[in-house]
Amino acid sequence: MTGSMEGVERFDSPGKGRGLRVTRAFKVGELLFSCPAYSYVLSVKERGCYCEFCFNRKEGLARCGKCKKAFYCNAKCQKGDWPMHKLECSAMLAFGENWCPSEMSRLVARILAKKKTQKERCASEKILLIGEMQSHAEDEDNEKREMSEADIAGMHRFYSKHLEVPEHKDLVTLFSQVACNGFTIEDDELSHIGTAVYPDVALINHSCLPSVIVTYKGTSAEIRAVQDMKPGDEVLISYIDLLYPTDDRNNRLRESYYFTCECQECKCKSKDKAKLKVRKQSDPIEPDVISNMVRYARKTIREFRALNLDSVAPPSELLEMCEQSLEEMGAVFDDANVYMLHMMYQAMGVCLYMEDPDGAIRYGEKILRPYSQLYPPYSLNVSSMYLKLGRLYMGLDRHSAGMKALKKAMAIMEVAHGKDHSYLIELRKEIARK
């Protein structure tokens, strides 16, 4: 571990390799430890909204005088970020609109730059030692290999002038390590802000019944208990979205992290029936009809995700796709079925993008109750939904509903983020102004 963390120790977790466990009791909401990022990068889409260095969200950020693309709180933040920003500053000017490295390439470039400047051997190798952070380059399928090769090509194109790029084999390994161990930094509504690597947090193993949650304060990760923990309990987070049934969760874990979860929930599958709830009918629905609809739902989700990522389809087309799939699945699935909830959530997002608050509320209200039942306690997925709905209600002068939803969000966030987090401070001000 990068530093001393009182009450937490590293150990060999049976069947999992390295892990962390607590050496004293922790109560729900209590902070186990805070971890600074080894390296991080702000999403290009969030430039101008967040400081590139400290990830502070505020208006009136100062622009880099050279590239005009990066924004900072003040000269101190700009100076602090220069060792990383200089990798991109002149390149953005030189390439103009053609400057388009992936976020993964940008993060890896910063890791390499930090490795070069880091003086202490143990710190400089913290990311690059295969034994410290997992690499599955040899297990990647063709699609992932193609993505890695594209990222590597982007690194050579955009960074080779200012960075000593390692040999191809070492670069492949590093990209694999970062893919397996990187963390997405998100805001209070779970919108993507950036990507970071936290060596200490990467030691934590997965469970579909997590004991802790990871949230972010600026560029630092904070780990808080979401269950009461006693000495000797392993520190466990979820690597994936826990909404989905056991088979889906383990397919995702195998695809992204190359293992199958054997936690108690995966063994007993206690929530699978509720997650795959079918519509009540006078005649029971045949099992093969349900199986066929599950296959259809998974296929539709993949197609929608691909279409959405390409960003070529107009929003109206995306919304129509959501509505058609909901109509098709609704003949078999209950509205609380997770595949229905997935497409409702996508439809809500499209409505928000199209500035249709009524449409967004219509979908959000259908989502909220099943989310509260299917997700674990203190889930950010639930708090973010309360936040979105609360703010939508307030925008439509539905004051009572808005206050109720915002307070529900605040109750979850006080546990997940800590009562002194800037998101909670702003939310209390937001509620007081109403």
From TrEMBL:
Tell me, in one coarse class, where this protein mainly resides. cytoplasm
**Where is this protein found?**
Cytoplasm, Cytosol; Nucleus
Q: What is its EC number?
A: 2.1.1.354
Q: Where is the SET domain?
A: 6-240
GO CC terms in record: cytosol; nucleus
| One BP annotation, GO | heart contraction
Q: Which InterPro entries match?
A: H3K4_H4K5_MeTrfase (IPR050869), SET_dom (IPR001214), SET_dom_sf (IPR046341), TPR-like_helical_dom_sf (IPR011990), Znf_MYND (IPR002893)
> Which Gene3D superfamilies does the UniProt record give?
6.10.140.2220, SET domain (2.170.270.10), Tetratricopeptide repeat domain (1.25.40.10)
The chain positions of domain MYND-type read: 51-89
Which reaction is catalysed here? L-lysyl(4)-[histone H3] + 3 S-adenosyl-L-methionine = N(6),N(6),N(6)-trimethyl-L-lysyl(4)-[histone H3] + 3 S-adenosyl-L-homocysteine + 3 H(+); L-lysyl-[protein] + S-adenosyl-L-methionine = N(6)-methyl-L-lysyl-[protein] + S-adenosyl-L-homocysteine + H(+)
Q: Does the keyword Acetylation apply?
A: no
Presence of the UniProt keyword Ion transport in the record: no
Going by the UniProt record, its keywords in alphabetical order are: Chromatin regulator, Cytoplasm, Metal-binding, Methyltransferase, Nucleus, S-adenosyl-L-methionine, Transcription, Transcription regulation, Transferase, Zinc, Zinc-finger
Query: What function is annotated for this protein?
Result: Protein-lysine N-methyltransferase that methylates both histones and non-histone proteins, including p53/TP53 and RB1. Specifically trimethylates histone H3 'Lys-4' (H3K4me3) in vivo. The activity requires interaction with HSP90alpha. Shows even higher methyltransferase activity on p53/TP53. Monomethylates 'Lys-370' of p53/TP53, leading to decreased DNA-binding activity and subsequent transcriptional regulation activity of p53/TP53. Monomethylates RB1 at 'Lys-860'.
Name assigned to this protein: [histone H3]-lysine(4) N-trimethyltransferase
High-level lineage: Eukaryota, Metazoa, Chordata, Craniata, Vertebrata
